[in-house]
Amino acid sequence: MSRMIRFLSYPATACLIVLGGCTANVDDAAAPETTAKVEEKASTEAKPAADRTQAEASKPASQTSTYNYTGEVNPLSLVSLVKETTSATEGTPDNYLWLPSDPALIQDEPVTITPPAGLSELTPVAVVPAANPLTKGKIELGKQIYFDPRMSKNGTVSCATCHNPEKGWTDQSPVSTGIHGQKGGRSAPSVINTVYGRSMFWDGRAPSLEGQCQGPPRNPIEMGDQTYKEIIDRFRKIDGYKERFKKVFGTDVTLDGMAKAIASFERTVLSGNSAYDKYVKGDNKALNESQKRGMVLFGLDLNDDDEYKDSMKGVVKRKAACTACHAGSNFTDEQFHNLGVGWDEAKKEFKDPGRFGAEPVGAKNLTSLGAFKTPTVREIAKTAPYMHDGSIKTLAEVVEHYDKGGNPNPYLDFELKKKLNLTAQEKADVVAFMESLTGEAIKLELPKLPPGPDGKSPDPRSAFTPPSQDKTAANDLHLFVR
Ligand code: HEC
Ligand code: HEC
């Protein structure tokens, strides 16, 4: 397990539990269901994917395969990836997990969120689970918990420490830093548009936002080695939270309510109405010429009535082939692909197994080794460094990675097994296009946090900077214990 903590940032044991403890059971983590859903989605709404065969047929000669990697993965490195599973909620009293609701206490109202231009609607069927409808009070409560450093064992880390609204909802670091300044093994993804995600984490091991948010509080290197009972006892001593839970859920503080509230808040963190979206809506001036060329190389179409169309002959549609994976309105196929990021050629192993590590025993598939979930490229100019391990510093270097056909390894994705042969101008154009995907500013007022039994209300900003290194857990304040 220590190995898993090192590279997963959420302990292996926590991850399957996370699945067990939320809306779904462990089986829901298995690939088939997710895959089926995504395929359905891809065929209905991802136009670029449909363009795919056509584009393959018209592929320029320069893109023929140059790939001839023949090495193998060191088999011994694989055995340690098969992990034990335990239940995360084991030892948590049932009435901390869930309580029956007293409807007479509830004072809340449903809300409809209208996403910015370019994003699909937040419908109960597709992206908001029926068990957790969006309500005004719940979103407010979730926002408070998200920004509350008292979620961590010593009051120094909140969700915003690693998913900071001022840094594109990431920490802009290669890997994230948690309690006592400890480093995790993966880069913190942005929480923007996660409402559309079909699975959570780089390896997709959590099925929902509700499931995902139960991991960090118990993770020894993120928010501290603490039990759910400990966290909920702490929140039950904060009158403001007890009140809010009554009004929103008609119950005392529970894990179920916390997860639902955090997920509801996250569903409102949306990035859209970017220059690209304005262009798609008909404003032909919203993108400059370089961005337009980049868009076409990326795999998307110019507007029919765009006069620039005639002057850009010679730009090969989909030459960069990005829409093979970054497709649909959130620029992701929600699938897992191996780009060779993190492959150690000397040791013949992956520094991080990716999707393979998350596949349940009984569903392990070697071709998932080193594969990670396609991230959105919306808001991408704000979230450097890039990739699951933060190993690529700039968007220009990301494009170079694709241009050379990724990093050769035994399971490199089919789409990358060829060089793109982009010119310097074309590379710059693709970068310029990605820069047009920065959305309109997300309006956010930081919440006021309710005072604890010590009379203090923490400032959400106090946790915006990751804690500095301090190796002794003995410094933990053990907030409100006794
Ligand atoms: C110490 C840093 C840290 C803290 C604290 C933290 N996270 Fe994360 N978060 C990460 C990292 C790193 C990942 C990716 C881990 C992985 O894929 O294995 C992640 C993944 C996620 C994802 C998945 C996004 C996606 O696209 O798959 C969501 C959502 C998320 N975190 C929300 C939260 C919430 C809510 C909290 C607070 C309860 C929180 N995080 C606390 C670092 C952190
Ligand atoms: C085969 C599928 C695939 C193709 C084709 C593809 N990507 Fe990706 N992209 C991914 C995956 C998967 C990741 C994450 C990989 C990892 O972290 O190991 C990623 C990561 C990225 C990132 C970093 C995102 C972040 O949050 O760190 C950027 C930027 C990006 N891709 C842009 C592009 C561009 C530009 C193209 C076309 C030149 C492209 N991608 C083609 C699947 C793909």
Please provide a written account of the structure.
- This protein is mainly alpha-helical and 482 residues long.
- It folds into two domains: 2-24 and 81-271, Cytochrome Bc1 Complex, Chain D, domain 2 (Orthogonal Bundle), CATH 1.10.760; 48-74 and 273-435, Cytochrome Bc1 Complex, Chain D, domain 2 (Orthogonal Bundle), CATH 1.10.760.10.
- It has helices at 2-8, 12-21, 31-45, 47-50, 52-57, 76-79, 94-97, 136-147, 159-162, 209-212, 228-236, 239-249, 255-266, 275-280, 289-298, 308-311, 355-358, 395-403, 424-435; strands spanning 336-338, 343-344, 349-350, 371-373.
- The strands form two sheets. The chain has a two-stranded antiparallel sheet. The chain has a two-stranded antiparallel ribbon with strand order 2-3.
- It is globular, with a radius of gyration of 23 Å.
- The chain starts with a helix and ends in a 47-residue tail after the last helix.
- Bound molecules: heme C (HEC) (2 copies).
- Residues 320-322, 324-326, 337, 339, 341, 372, 374-375, 377, 380, 383, 386-388, 395, 398-399, 402, 413, 415-416, 430 line the site of one heme C.
